[in-house]
Amino acid sequence: MEIKELLDKYIAGYDLIAKQLSLMPSEVIHFKPAPDKWDISEIIVHLADSESHGFVRAKKIIAESGGGVTVYNQQIWANNLYYDRMDYKDALEMIRILRKNLYRLLKIIPEKAWQNYIFHPESGKITLSDWIQLYIDHIDIHIQQMHRNYYDWQKANKEELV
Questions:
Q1: What pTM did the predictor assign?
Q2: Could you tell me the residue ranges of all domains in the chain?
């Protein structure tokens, strides 16, 4: 995929999330499909934490190619950082700002910087191009999860399936 296409898909991530949220009734936002599953608000808070990690990782790839990064346990973060009590609207705004800021940087870096990389303890070597594709895919994965939650909410409320 060309850099311009990657950048277009990357910056569109926020709009994809916002659009999905706008199509859902407010009652579905805090619906848990199961006790061990996240509701949509928790998904958004998770995405904001992921974006903040990704923001720093992308800058590390650009500024310090060849370095390493650490991992975090998303479920421990969700539990210990009270995702269920956080404001998903603030988290959504954080996603917007982080993506917008990083997008501006990614548009001006030299083409050779797209081959810069980091070492991830679980995934190995990740180039900047690989990294941005991971974050594009991450949004898509969680939008699908939001759709599943909405579907489960409709079933639970005997709403007509869309």
A1: 0.92
A2: 3-145
Q: Judge whether 34 and 80 are in contact, CB under 8 Å.
A: no
Q: Which two tokens stand for residue 155?
A: 């079933």
Distance CA 157, CA 118 (A): 46
- Rg for the chain (alpha carbons), in Å? 17
pLDDT of residue 1: 73
Write out the two tokens for 109. 């870096």
CATH placement of domain 3-145: 1.20.120.450
Q: Phi then psi for 127, rounded to 5 degrees?
A: -80, 170
Indicate whether 103 pLDDT > 70. yes
Burial of 39 (0-12, 13-18, 19+ CB in 10 A): buried
First to last CA, the chain: 33
125-160 burial: b if 16+ Cβ within 10 Å, else e: ebbbbbbbbebbebbeebbebbeebbebbbeeeeee
